Amino acid sequence: MPQTSHGVGGVSYDAKKRTWPAEFNVFLALVILVVIFELIGRIFLGDSFLFNTRDNVSGIFNEARLQIIILQVSIVGIIAIGVTQVIICGGIDLSSGSIVGATAMIAMSFAQVATVNGNPNPKAMFLAQGWTDLPVIVPVLVAIGCGLLAGLVNGSLIAYTRIPPFIATLGMMVTGRGIAKWWSKGQPISFPTEGFADIGKGLMPVIIFLSLAVLFQLIMTYTRYGKHCYAIGSNEDAARMSGIKIANHKILVYVIAGILAALAAVVLSSKNLTAQSGMGVMYELDAIAMAVIGGVSLSGGRGSIIGTVIGALIFGVIISGFTFLRLDAYYQEMVKGVIIVGAVVLDQWRQRMRALRA
Amino acid sequence: MSDISTTDIVLKTENLTKRYGGVHALEGANFELRKGEHVAIMGDNGAGKSTFVRQITAVEQRTSGQIWFDGKEVNFAGPIEARTAGIETVFQNLALADDLDVPSNLFLGREKVLFNLGPFSILDRKYMRKATEAALIRTAVKIPNLSNTIRHMSGGQRQCVAIARTATFASKLIIMDEPTAALGVQETAQVENIIRTLKDNGEPLILISHNMRQVFDLCDRIVVFRRGRIVANLRKENTDGNDIVSYITGAKTGEAELAA
Known about the structure:
The structure holds 2 protein chains of 2 kinds.
Chain A: H1 2-5, E1 10-11, H2 22-45, H3 63-88, H4 96-109, E2 115-116, E3 119-120, H5 137-161, H6 165-183, E4 189-190, H7 194-199, H8 204-222, H9 224-234, H10 236-241, H11 246-272, E5 274-275, H12 283-293, H13 305-324, H14 329-357
Antiparallel strand pairs in A: 2-3, 4-5
Helix pairs in contact in A: 2-13, 3-8, 3-9, 3-11, 3-12, 3-13, 4-5, 4-6, 4-11, 5-6, 5-11, 8-9, 9-11, 12-13, 12-14, 13-14
Chain B: E1 9-20, E2 23-34, E3 38-43, H1 49-56, E4 64-69, E5 72-73, H2 79-85, E6 87-90, H3 102-106, E7 113-115, E8 122-123, H4 125-138, E9 142-143, H5 155-168, E10 173-177, H6 185-200, E11 205-208, H7 212-218, E12 221-226, E13 229-235, H8 241-249, E14 256-257
């Protein structure tokens, strides 16, 4: 009686020890934030933040506001998806904003029309070569190539030279911005083809952002790639001893982050109908902030794409809320800083409480 | 002695030697482990116990000597190869990912997939959960909730998960490096019960331990290391605590070889 003599193993399910998903708290924070804005609006402005108060438009909710909330965070949100998986894997990516700038410039050069109002396009980079009016797939592929290359450099530096991700991606951040300025000697690149302009039209950024979010949430939860991201971020030595090829995985993680930043560049330049070398400045920090607010732990191993999406929405609600309250943009940034730090403090505190309970 | 495939010897080393520069960490270790046998390795700090294990698991490459495992002479290039061959190690510093749940830890690095898409292969989570439950039952490990992350478990539970991990796969040899060193009384008892279960299941085990009571409770044979050499190899019936201590401290010397 081998088993009975030493007790039976297995799972002794204990409902009390069950904890709700971390995303729930982030979602709760989002709801509370909306309620606060709603209350302040009702009391001080006599207007509703969330609901439709106008007679000339139909619907229960203020749809225009809801659309703006998500639209204004969609492009950075795409970057935040990539940044989230980097942070979960125990790294950090400071280069995404610069990758956006450089990629927007380079990709837009391949998306230009030949003639504007009957005259040759004054901004066309490759008019002489005849690389104008190209099908939309060309600039998109060029962008993906740029992102892939940047990510490959980031990842290889981190995996093979073992320098901290902070330094490697900081280097890419400075270099990327340099490339963005050098590409057209600081000149903006404009007049994209209709096909290219369609990518960022209307609610397309939202659709692209949410589709990618769903895709990556599935990847992080159901694939070996996702599992290994969490494993490496959680305990790199354990992951190595378990036979996970750390170097290859890290390179792939940064390549994916680079490609997502490049896709954000496509959407952004398409939406703005122009590419400028200053595009995407500070996006990397906004993306990191969205992830952190969404419960992604900067020490790696914890967090999810869903959390980051909710974090992005919190971002959007704050910006819209401040506009709704007719407060200056300066206050937005001040409060954003407080919220980022507050989110991390809360998360640490919650982790400690959970550790004590266990 | 190169053909041991016909015998019931699981692991055999001959003249296993490891030097770090001029330091002789391990000198000419001859060691045998038979099917179903639980052998304890004892010795002072720096006596060569962990070095010995690191050569077997190929965490380090030996300077000289030969190793036979499972009937064949082996030259593992690294710990992954050793593990694939069936040598499972429970490391002193638990090789677990804190933020993953129990099944993910058990299958870390060798996930079962539904279909192969390279790195994006879809995991067979149902299978891994079932296999985990089976492994827990096999090793008599109790876990409150499979979906809980390791972070939220006690030291004993973590150690149990680390041990259950070895039982998930068809391991042919389990090596434990001081599995109860950091545990309390109750948790130690829990881990010891698991080791007894492994014994009942006929799984061979090498246990590195400083705990004399534990060694006499759990093992059939005790091998003592001193200054990089095996100085004693004793069946537990033929020895006692004092005897072992005198070998460990060097009060008694010379290789005490007994028919195993």
